[in-house]
Amino acid sequence: MNDLKKSDSAIVAMKPANKGLPGPAEPGERRAGPKGNPGSQSSRRAQKRGSESQAADRIRQAARRNPEERLVALLHHITVPVLAEAFHSLKSDVAAGVDGVTWEMYAEGLEDRLVDLHRRLHRGAYRAPPSRRVYMPKEDGGQRPLGIATLEDKIVQKAVTDTILVPIYETEFLGFSYGFRPGRGTHDALDAVAVGMERRKVSWIVDADIRGFFDNLGRDHLVRMLERRIGDRRVIRLIIKWLDAGVMEGTDWSDTGRGVPQGGTISPCLANVYLHYVLDDWFHNTWRKRIAGGDTIIVRYADDFVCGFQHEGDAKRFLRDLGERLARFGLELHPGKTRLIEFGRFAKADRRRRGQGKPETFDFLGMTHFCDQSRKGRFRVGRKPSRKRVNRTLRRIKEELRRRRHDDRNETAAWLGRVINGWLNYYAVPGSGRYLGRFIRLCQRVLWRALRRRSQRDRTAWEKIDLLVAIHWPKARIRHPWPDQRLVVNTQGRSPVR
What we know:
With 498 residues, the protein is α+β, with helices and mostly antiparallel strands. The protein contains 17 helices and 11 strands. A hairpin with a 2-residue loop joins strand 6 and strand 7. Helix 13 packs parallel to helix 15. The N terminus is likely disordered.
């Protein structure tokens, strides 16, 4: 019965002997033994079918059952199978860290590597290497510093995040937090903004921006926040190792003592924990309930958030209190990107009466939000692609077409069609039809100019461009439902902005 791939046999009831010891008058029949293996840690039923480890589910149940209790036994859930699953969840073309080890290199002798990694983790011998510093261009012309961890570091961070941190803090995070959470995305946040402004009494918007959030995050504050729910010192020490690992830029090592490397696997989760205690919990349980005199809404995606208020006085007071609150935790608002605007169902009429023109707009998650109205004259939040995003996309298309100048025109048109298809997957929201058509016409002109520059004698007619577009490009159709339709389905009628 204990052989490999053998189930436990049933226990057959036996008749007691007549001369045996005295027992119950009617001895009950014993049940059959279990047919499965109760010690299994996985619940996967078939290949390529989504499942989660039983360890993560048990941690989630314990965190939900005891909201105020600190969980003290966590690191033993990081097993070799958990590390293997974290490794296979990484993309095979993931960038290498300072050690230069790629996914293919680590896959050679994977089992022995993971066993050794597991042993070093549990005896405290694991050392977090520094991250490799790279820079990504920003929309405003600046550069965003990113930290690329080593592959082994990514495996451990992925395992700790998915098995320990996410199950614990998904029970803590509030409904209006959308960034880097399972089952939530950017369009859920955009829908929450639109529905909240249309259904609540919102007349003023605080469009705030935290200056250098990932670079200025206070590590001591973050560790104290984590210790509120995590009592396992081994997990805390592991996170501290990642925070203090520093970055390597060329051959120079540096560490400012603040912030987390943007680009790490665990960084989004740690950022959500930090802003949950700094902003979300404070706004929902303190400011909204004790200070606000009217309706309020808030939607946050990572470090980007939008707040709406019914009264101008509440909006101004919140902006002042928010600056003081962030300063206590080493953060500050960006003075050039933080503003208070009049926005809502009465903004257009009130500004016209004062002779101030159209209501202002604000950008959130790549969309420009403006005051609009439906065909029946009801207020509606209009959305269109941000001008910065459109210009950035066109600039990148021009650069790629310059590299593809001597390729076949059909291959070039097919590539650009795939780019436009991905662009439509994000920006084709209800009410943006005319802006989608305008963007596609701009792409047509960019393609036409690129083809004509291949030769001084090239005379590509516009009719040929229309033919290439008809063959290789998708139609500019709306691909998303109205915000209230999708939001009600995702939240089962519960408002996520309250």
